[in-house]
Amino acid sequence: MSTAAIVVNPVKVDADALRAALTAAEERWGWEPTHWIETTEEDPGTGQTREALDRGADVVIAAGGDGTVRTVAEVLRGTGTPLALLPSGTGNLLARNLDLTLDDVDHALDTALNGTDRPIDVGVVELRDADGDNRTRRHAYLVMAGLGIDAQMIAATDDDLKAKAGWLAYVKAIGKVLRDKNELRLRYQLDGGRVHGMRAHTVLIGNCGSLPANILLLPEAAVDDGEFDIVVLRPEGFVGWVQIIVKIFWENGIMRRTSVGRRLMGENKEVRAMNYLKGREFVLKLSRAQEVELDGDLFGRASALKTWIDPRSLNVRVPKDA
């Protein structure tokens, strides 16, 4: 008989209800009792996932927000042991991009115990610390890495408001951040090509393209295409922000989603304020250290980063009829 392990963020779930649902799912599919392992403030999931592997779990269920999912996936990458998602946070970014059910615990557990495995790409990033001694930190991410306005927005978001209002809490933070005239001065290299220099407000490196509120930021991004998509935002004043808003919310969010809309759009043209890139390895150096976010969590300040795709290195459980 098979055995699952569940890595649980106790702040994000109703433990009693989840335990009852787990017992029912085990009985439905003939599985052994699931190993229940809770995260802590000191360890958000790394040690717990290693414990799950040591116990011989046939699947590891991540029950928590995007941070829990990212941490569990970081350990499971390359092991062959599948990751199952029990969406429990505000963003649920990977679940959204895989079109998984968000608010149905029984369906999520049925998928975990009786679904099929879908291999997806994982982004790996090395961050060079801001103190200038060339120390680096390596992490994995599933959805997006970013610096600039998006990282500043996360830093400015009120956690209490986020708990009450969900992703709408970011709206208040956006207003605060947009008043900051700070620009990034950077040099970058894509897939070993020539070095480019530019000024920008935000750089986002995506393995997936969709964000909460049905925002399609990276319309060509696919979670298993062996590449990531990069968008550089560099608006110049009010007109530049209008170009970005029209591109993201009108063209990507509405027109691109239907065949009629795509025909009306015609040839896809970039706007001056928003540039797209695609590749497998991206190296970026900053004139001064900036906050970096991975899948919606801050990872401190970095003066440079190198990121690459580890293709199809993580198995994710999805419904058999997906």
Automatic annotation (TrEMBL):
Please give the PROSITE patterns that the UniProt record associates with this protein: DAGK
> 4Fe-4S: is it a keyword of this entry?
no
InterPro entries registered for this protein in UniProt: ATP-NAD_kinase_N (IPR017438), Diacylglycerol_kinase_cat_dom (IPR001206), Lipid_Phosphate_FormReg (IPR050187), NAD/diacylglycerol_kinase_sf (IPR016064), YegS/DAGK_C (IPR045540)
Protein name per its UniProtKB record: Diacylglycerol kinase family protein
Required cofactor names: Mg(2+)
* Gene Ontology MF: a single term: kinase activity
Residue ranges annotated for the DAGKc domain, each copy included: 1-129
Q: Does the keyword Kinase apply?
A: yes
Q: Name one Pfam family in it.
A: DAGK_cat
Query: What is the similarity comment for this entry?
Result: Belongs to the diacylglycerol/lipid kinase family.
Annotated keywords: ATP-binding, Kinase, Lipid biosynthesis, Lipid metabolism, Nucleotide-binding, Phospholipid biosynthesis, Phospholipid metabolism, Transferase
Superkingdom per UniProt: Bacteria
